[in-house]
Amino acid sequence: MTTDLSSLAARRHEVAQALAAVLPAGAALAKPEDTRPYECDGLAAYRQMPLVVALPHDEAQVLAVLAVCRRLGVPVVPRGAGTGLSGGATPIAEGVVLSTARLNRIVRLDATSRTAVVQPGVRNLAISEAAAPHGLYYAPDPSSQIACTIGGNVAENSGGVHCLKYGLTVHNVLRVRVATIDGEIVELGSEAPDAPGLDLLSVFIGSEGMLGIVTEVTVKLVPKAMCARVIMASFGDVVTAGNAVAHVIAAGIIPAGLEMMDRTSVRMVEPFVQAGYDLEAAAILLCEADGTAEEVDDEIARMTAVLREAGAGAIAVSTTEAERLRFWSGRKNAFPAAGRISPDYYCMDGTIPRKNLAQVLTGIAQMEVKYGLRCANVFHAGDGNLHPLILFDANQPDELHRAEAFGAEILALCVAVGGTITGEHGVGIEKIDSMCVQFRPAELAAFFAVKKAFDPAMLLNPDKAIPTLHRCAEFGRLRVTNGVLPHAGLPRF
Amino acid sequence: MADTIEFFRDRIQAATAAGTPLRIVGGASKDWYGGPLQGEPLDTRGHSGIVDYEPTELVVTVRCGTPLAQLEAQLREHRQMLAFEPPRFGAASTIGGVVASGLSGPRRATAGAVRDFLLGAQLLNGKGELLNFGGQVMKNVAGYDVSRLLAGSMGVLGLITQVSLKVLPLPLVETTLRFELDEIAALARMNDWGGQPLPLSATCWHDGVLTVRLSGAEPAVAAATRKLGGAEVADGPAFWTSLRDQTHAFFDTDTLWRLALPPAASALILGGTQLIEWGGGQRWLKAPRAGAADIRRTVAAAGGHATLYRAVDKRAGAFHHPSAAILRIHERLQGAFDPAGIFNRGRLY
């Protein structure tokens, strides 16, 4: 152990010296007091001090950091704002954390071509704020958008509550500039449609920092809708609510937002936000329309009729922007509310074909009995992305273990009904074992081949997202300690 | 359909063992697209049929050999569509070819391309392994998004046996408007309107006329029609179909270039005649004065890339070449998925 520690210290010294030689003063951090803030991301149960933290200021410095790491054989963990929920930015003991925090410039914003060229450390919301004077915005709105960076969004293919209508990161990023571990700059995608050759941009987006370091991103900006209104509808049971969503879609409507909360969630959030939710409802649906005033009125009228026909009880429609935000407030505060009523919670992130919602919710209800734990379900109903929040108390013997088993069983059920283990939070280290449930060995081998095509040395964020077959024997999962997420002030939905 | 997969697998494994190329062929409606054909045909049409279609899930799963016409007819029954409007070069077009070629139609600039609607795919690689990527759900970040990588891959990574596609409702109302404008004014207008909250779903400029399609709910289309002015076109749907399927008189030519450009790029002086779509993002060029190298250079300088789309003589290469670093990544990917290099050799690069 002593030998290990002293050799780690020697390695730290070596790597820090090499990085300091290619970076400005203060951009290579090695002292524990400096690197402590980087020991975890939003998946705070997993903590690991990095060897060194590098904070390059520009693309040339990113290349220089990668060159040092390649020469010394040091793994590199890229990091944006560190708001990710799956441990994608969890450090590796013998690895460098490459933070994009100082690459934070909006390079160009062009209202005519409706594009913004930004460095990876620019915050998601900052892009929309910069575009606002032109009546434009960047559409994907992950709940952490006030803090999360576009580089991280590219790594995770982040979504948000409006992605059924406006798409995910992959639909809204036109081009990325990437520094490869081989020391080259490549551009994937293009501001012109359908870049030539294989669509490497598609495979890069959502690759969790394992294929290259983003140094610049061109995003698409879209015109901001003139207004938005939301319907809040109560249902006596979740099956009827799920069917109502299907009826809305069948009526040819793609709502701007379509969210569901079950009774446990509603009762959990209402005391917290006083949104005016129906506490007797088994489920509540929020259906949003956006566009011109005439368009919104028309769509609201059609959706209201469909929801009524589909068995909705109470229906309320927002008439002012303040009311719209109030209706949304409960949904957007589901995570903090869970932290308020329970010492700890696990947030799961499966996606299912919506038609199987009742089967999955019934399965989860049975698991609540089996594991002796409560579970609140919030659901991006439009696109099938389910966030069960398993409530537990880590100070009670065995509750953590039961919560982990509960979560794993939910994800296995999502896969069994034709869904996926992660809709938007990423695999990272959190769900790496559940990947073994979803993919077979030949598919995992194909993923490793993709990684090697970009990163032959296998140095970029190794051991994340794609499990080795050997690894497929072990299991581990997210834990929120004492109900406190890092970035506790951020909304999470 | 397990037997057709077994048949494909046997052919692929034999071809890999012998190192003999295979050319994947569905309806053979796009044989003229991309590089020259090489190898023995591997006919996908036996692997046909819609596997799963739940209109309320907005997802359809379909086998590669299914005729596009059959799929679209099924979607239409439920008032849904493939929003990327793939061109139909004949009744025989199959969905496998639609995905492999990656070609999209008039709605692409606002709705998205093939890849944007590709949720999952099943692939037989060069070893004959059947691989599943993505899935049948809208949001899925488990594993690298290999399925979208297959859109426009020209079949060089393997035989796409099945795909899951996101579908969208047909617009409730569509209106077509025309404006007499020259090229420069039309480009400016398209980009200006693109930045406003208008229900634009297609644009086309050709021969002094800008034609615009509005799609959506009735009040939105009516309000936009009032705002934009212009003259309403009676046979709008026929016009957009002729663009989508490239049966419009403009496309009646032996040599045709497809120029992809940042939509706001200025008018390019290359001689010949142009037809501009996608708000300026796609510009068709025929009878240019400039040679292939000049065209590629001019378009690249404007931030785009040029494809020699249709030509008797394709010695200049069908596709724009990416950088050496990108091509190395291509080679490694192809080496992993198709180690013997049997699939659609030379069709992409």
Task: Indicate the structural class of chain B.
Answer: alpha+beta
Give the class-level CATH name of the largest domain in chain B: Alpha Beta
Stretches of chain B where pLDDT is under 50 for at least 5 consecutive residues are none
The CATH architecture assignment of the largest domain in chain B turns out to be 2-Layer Sandwich
Explain this structure.
Chain A is an alpha+beta fold and 493 residues long. Chain A has 17 helices and 19 strands. In chain A, strands 12, 13, 14, 15, 16, 17, 18 and 19 form an eight-stranded antiparallel β-sheet that branches. In chain A, strands 5-6-10-8-9 form a five-stranded antiparallel β-sheet. In chain A, helix 9 packs across helix 11 (293-309), helix 10 (263-273) crosses helix 12 (321-332) and helix 14 runs antiparallel to helix 15. The longest helix of chain A is centred in the N-terminal third of the chain and has 21 residues, at 2-22. Chain A is globular, with a radius of gyration of 23 Å. Chain B is an alpha+beta fold. Chain B folds into two domains: 2-169 and 330-337, Uridine Diphospho-n-acetylenolpyruvylglucosamine Reductase, domain 3 (2-Layer Sandwich), CATH 3.30.465.10; 173-253 and 255-310. Chain B is built from eleven helices and 17 strands. Chain B has helices at 2-18, 68-77, 95-101, 108-111, 114-117, 146-150, 183-194, 218-228, 236-244, 292-301, 324-337, and strands at 22-25, 40-43, 50-54, 59-63, 80-81, 118-124, 130-134, 159-166, 168-169, 173-180, 200-206, 209-216, 231-232, 256-260, 273-277, 282-286, 305-310. Chain B is globular. The two termini of chain B are 32 Å apart. Chains A and B meet through strand 9, helix 8, helix 9, helix 11 and helix 17 of A and strand 7, helix 6, strand 9, helix 7 and helix 8 of B.
